[in-house]
Amino acid sequence: MKESKKLKIKSLLAASVLLTGLSTSAMAQIGEQRQNLSVGFNAGANINSVSFTPRIKQNSMTGITGGLTARYISEKYFAMICGVQVELNFSQRGWDELFETLDENNQTVKDPSRSYTRNMTYVDIPFLAHLAFGKDRGVQFFVNAGPQISFLIGESEDINVDMNNLTNTQKEIYDHKIPNKFDYGIAAGGGLELRTRKAGNFLVEGRYYFALSDFVSTTKKDYFSRAAHGTITVKLTYLFDLKK
Known about the structure:
Blueprint: H1 2-27, E1 32-53, E2 58-59, E3 61-77, E4 80-97, E5 100-102, E6 108-110, E7 115-134, E8 138-160, H2 168-173, E9 182-195, E10 201-211, E11 226-243
Domain Outer membrane protein beta-barrel: 28-215
Organism: Bacteroides reticulotermitis
InterPro entries: Beta-barrel_OMP_2 (IPR025665)
């Protein structure tokens, strides 16, 4: 089972790297040269959850993200504008466990008397193929996709439960430091860009990050066989051109 999972993860990572490589190759083909270098900053919000096996029920957890963006547009190949983009972001992730109880009607409801939240702060570095369609000045539709690496730089827990009455799953994760600080996966998304002549470029984007790595040990002898992030990000980016 775990052998199959690792093979699938390696295949997804290879596909992501191939996508970025194909974009770079496409830029090397004959096309209308652009030579456009832009830099700027981005900021937005994360909606994060963690895929655990065995499962841990969770509420949606929000956090902030933001950092620096650099993008290089090489050429316009037919109707497609080709480029590459790299970012350096600080990103809040983690999970918020869902506790349930029975009400007076014997219905399952959220239990407000118990809570557990794990806050995890990462430095994210996505390497993205940037493909866009539209006018040089005006509105463009774009797609970004490629591999991402991350480094855990901070973590904290907010625990409001009886530590003497934990489940086996909770005992494995509560009050334990995250052992794997390095995270990697695939990021992909799309959005709209407004390109102006003098004021710069304004982008709004929705993106999903799928982690291929686990932040706890998941060997055959370990309790968890999967512990990986899944993050939806909505962000705004401002870029100004250094070279046109």
